[in-house]
Amino acid sequence: MTVTEAPAIELSAGATDFGGRIRDGRLVPEVIRRDFPIFGTQVHGQPLVFLDSASTSQKPEAVIDALDAYYREYTANVHRGIYEIGERSTASYEAARASVARFINAPDSHEVIFTRNATEAINLVAYAWGRKNIVPGDAIVLTEMEHHANLVPWQLLAQEKDGDLEFIPITDDGILRQDVYEVLLRLKPKLVAFTHVSNTLGTINPVREMIEAAHAAGALVLIDGAQAVPHVPVDVQAIGADFYAFSGHKMLGPTGSGVLWARRELLEAMPPFMAGGDMIREVHLRRSEWNDIPWKFEAGTPDIAAGIGLGAAAEYLGQLGMDRVREHERELLIYAFAALEREHPDVVLYGPMDPDIRCGVIPFNVPGVHPHDVAQVLDRSGVAVRAGHHCTMPLHERLDLPATARASFNVYTTQGDVDTLIEGLREVKRIFGAA
Amino acid sequence: MDDLYRDYILEHYRRPHNFGVLDNATATQEGANPLCGDRITLQVRVVGDQIAAVGFTGRGCAISQASASLLTDEVKGKEVDAAAAMKASDVLDLLGIEISPARMKCALLSLETLQGALGPAETNS
């Protein structure tokens, strides 16, 4: 099977303007948001201020058009059709895979497996790799800041295989305790699995150093990159990961798109995760032979449109440039910290306050007001924030918090959005009579 | 006037009625809304077939706290069967505000917990 390469995009740092979206090497979110039709939407008669991108991101025209074109012009299954639109759908789907591979600097696009989301990617590893390799007494090292998606699959595996889960604790500021990690590595774990960027606190973990330490102790490493790939440059080869899982829908791609990247030799040694069509080479009544990677792990008709849309999202982000995306969100974080400190000194913030080790995720609480009520009042100003435990119940327990409200950024987030949040918080305090 | 956060709702949130631990409870039930982290512990003291006392502790949003405050006021002195037969609409009437689908669980947590405390299978959990 051949993989069609998508046309390379000319990208030289600083040279491109990308239609005004980049000026003097910096993103211009006011221009970028014109690519996102949703910002024409009003909520409660107000323009939408979407500060819940850590949950899912909005979609640019380029992604929506890619979905639309597939459904309108060349809907056909992949890897089957000996007819023109079938060949086009296969070529587009595989070109999208190549785009995603380039985006994370995977050495080989066949190492990119399309899944529904990061959760499915992690489950794939827990089932296909974990059930083959984990034996009673084996240790798996996780952290206290994991999203449930990178915790519960390992709980199931440990229960089934009588394995042992160990957790790297965090400081009160939400930073992983490297001193304890060193101690845990003496247990000679088979696997270390942790998040690249915390979805709740925004902490950027030192993945490269931690992976190096794990390898020195003989462990493989799975990184949950769901909050990293949309916000920081990710180079799976440079950080040295063994498995890297992420979602497409948080990186401007469609829902139903996600990725597992893993080193070829690991994938080739793993048994299939799900069985059915497309993942086989030969099927006899009593036995079958598996297809090559990545198709061995993509049983059944995939979400073809979502895969193609994800490729478009990777190309779009690639044109913006992930270094610039990171810098945009870092500056916005500094702006928001300053505005909150100035206008709402009583609002409690969580997570590391050093913007150099943090993404644009701000969990907070207004004293005396439940996060649900904060979110409800903000909604009436058109501001969408998340309220709850953000799928990190153990982390909230560790910080002794029943819940938090959370504002999070993306490429289309402006300082004006932060200003509207600041105004909305005034209204929260007015209604609840807080200080 | 605010259509959701009316003064009496906020008043019940700030100073909930029947908030506290009963030292002679005949049943205790815990309830939680895992989505938003709300937790409530609700206790009743049943004498004969009537609710003699009711109390709750826990933390939650304005809607869940006001609902617990209003509901515990309502069922005090009520017959157990009548309290156990209360419906979601009864609690929404007590609240007297428009509850959106996303907040329904907040509004009904106290009723679910009360009925757990009154139900034979789940008492004294």
Descriptive notes:
The complex is a heterodimer of chains A (435) and B (125). Chain A is of the alpha/beta class and 435 residues long. Chain A folds into two domains: 46-50 and 321-432, Alpha-Beta Complex (Aspartate Aminotransferase, domain 1), CATH 3.90.1150; 84-318, Type I PLP-dependent aspartate aminotransferase-like (Major domain) (Aspartate Aminotransferase, domain 2, 3-Layer(aba) Sandwich), CATH 3.40.640.10. Chain A has 14 helices and 19 strands. In chain A, α2 runs antiparallel to α10, α3 crosses α10 and α11 runs parallel beside α14 (415-432). The longest helix of chain A is centred in the C-terminal third of the chain and has 22 residues, at 322-343. Chain A is globular. The relative contact order of chain B is 0.22. Chain B is α+β, with helices and mostly antiparallel strands and 125 residues long. Chain B is 40% helix and 22% strand. Chain B has a single domain (7-118), classed as Alpha-Beta Complex (Sufe protein. Chain: A). In chain B, a hairpin with a 2-residue loop joins β2 (38-47) and β3. Chain A binds chain B through residues 369-373, 376-377, 387-389, 393, 396, 401-403, 431-433, and chain B through 2, 4-5, 10, 34-39, 59-63, 103, 106.
